[in-house]
Design brief:
By secondary structure, the protein is an alpha/beta fold. Helix content is 44%, strand content 17%. The protein contains 13 helices and twelve strands. The strands form two sheets. The chain has a ten-stranded mixed β-sheet with strand order 2-1-3-12-11-4-5-10-8-9, sandwiched between helices. A two-stranded antiparallel ribbon has the order 6-7. The longest helix has 26 residues. Bound molecules: 3-isopropylmalic acid and magnesium ion (MG). The site of magnesium ion has 2 residues, from helix 9. Magnesium ion binds next to helix 9.
């Protein structure tokens, strides 16, 4: 199969982690005999610095003509004082919109090798396997009007949280479809006691839920969901929520399972899927070679599964990650006091080696079945 991918390294630790993720893709392509066509393009602060546009037209073109897109991270303090449309983040929001990626899937899975990494007791976090389904193209992130107006000292800022029924419907279906293949439970998170958007959300989600009689639907206010997420994370399964609540809860879920550096995501729904680790650009550690590449590497696994329909290859990457963690590989965010931290590149090479090993086993198993 020809895998035509666009890589958007972006800012901060983005380039370091995508470099390792690309080495993993190359190992997968080589072992499973896929042809790889990669091109790198600019986004975010890197694009602003080069061409004063956080999402240049060439980047959009390249993404739209690929099978899938891998993104590192965007965001850089150098542009903190730029107007909104000239901030790195504007590039990310626009590429999500250009790609029609309304469904952001953010799994938060607890790895048994990392029991000591969670700030929670092992018996609380054990078994945690959450799929956050975050609506990605609506709510306050995109709602109009938005502005800051007036004179310094008496300025007024406005953002608009806006949701249409069809936007709620399509993301709800994504969550219910996923739930059918998991434990058949959806928890819809909102703030229906205060927000009109949430009242409509709850009504529409309840209606769509009737098409999925086997899936048990429950509703929770976001404040209470945040508390339960640290109190009983293992009770969560599919969590369906709007854009900003999903942004917040997914970082929290990262903390719960031990490190935000582990979390991967898939932004899908349009013609081309966008895959990105959940962590940001982390400017404080950028360039030090200590960032955790596993979020980016696990995003590659999601890409193989969701955009390229390569289940076997996806499983191979996931078991490679599991394997290196079982063997004590830890970047600084995971090392704590008990382990020596390895570098970004060392973690990447260990996963690449494990991919080669698991690929060989998978291919051998297939051969003996034939
Ligand atoms: C994320 C990030 C982005 C978001 C930022 C960088 C715009 O926090 O992907 O979670 O808020 O969506
Ligand atoms: Mg976020």
């Amino acid at each position: 199969m020809l895998l035509k991918l666009t890589i958007l390294p972006g800012d901060g630790i983005g380039p370091e982690v995508t470099e390792q993720a690309v080495l993993v893709i190359q190992a997968v392509a080589e072992r499973f005999e896929h042809q790889l066509e990669l091109q790198h393009q600019l986004i975010g602060g890197a694009a602003l610095a080069a061409v004063n546009d956080p999402l240049p037209p060439e980047t959009i073109q390249a993404c739209l003509s690929s099978s899938a897109v891998l993104l590192g991270a965007v965001g850089s303090p150098a542009f903190d004082h730029n107007p909104g449309h000239l901030r790195p983040e504007a590039g990310l929001l626009r590429i999500r919109r250009e790609l029609g990626a309304y469904a952001n899937l953010r799994p938060a899975v607890f790895f048994s090798a990392l029991e000591d990494c969670s700030p929670l007791r092992a018996e609380v976090v054990r078994g945690t396997d959450i799929m956050i389904v975050r609506e990605l193209l609506g709510g306050a992130y995109f709602g109009q009007p938005r502005s800051i107006e007036g004179n310094p000292g008496s300025r007024v800022a406005v953002n608009t949280m806006r949701y249409g029924e069809s936007e709620i419907e399509r993301i709800a279906r994504v969550a219910f479809d996923l739930a059918e293949k998991r434990k058949k439970r959806v928890l819809s998170v909102d703030k229906a006691n205060v927000l009109e958007c949430s009242r409509l959300w709850r009504e529409v989600v309840t209606r769509i839920g009737k098409d999925y009689p086997e899936v048990k639907l429950a509703h929770q206010y976001v404040d209470s969901a945040a508390m339960l997420l640290v109190q009983r994370p293992a009770d969560f399964d599919v969590v369906l929520t709007e854009n900003m609540f999903g942004d917040i809860l997914s970082d929290q879920a990262g903390g719960v399972v031990g490190s935000l550096g582990l979390l991967a995501s898939a932004s899908v729904g349009g013609p081309v899927g966008l895959y990105e680790p959940v962590h940001g650009s982390a400017p404080d550690i950028a360039g030090k070679g200590i960032a955790n590449p596993l979020g980016a590497i696990l995003s590659v696994a999601m890409m193989l599964r969701h955009s390229l329909q390569l289940q076997r290859e996806a499983a191979c990457v996931e078991s490679a990650v599991n394997h290196v963690l079982q063997h004590g590989a830890r970047t600084a965010d995971l090392a704590g006091k008990t382990h020596a931290a390895i570098s970004t590149t060392e973690m990447g090479s260990r996963v690449v080696n494990a991919v080669k090993l698991t690929a060989a086993q998978a291919l051998q198993a297939e051969k003996s079945l034939r």
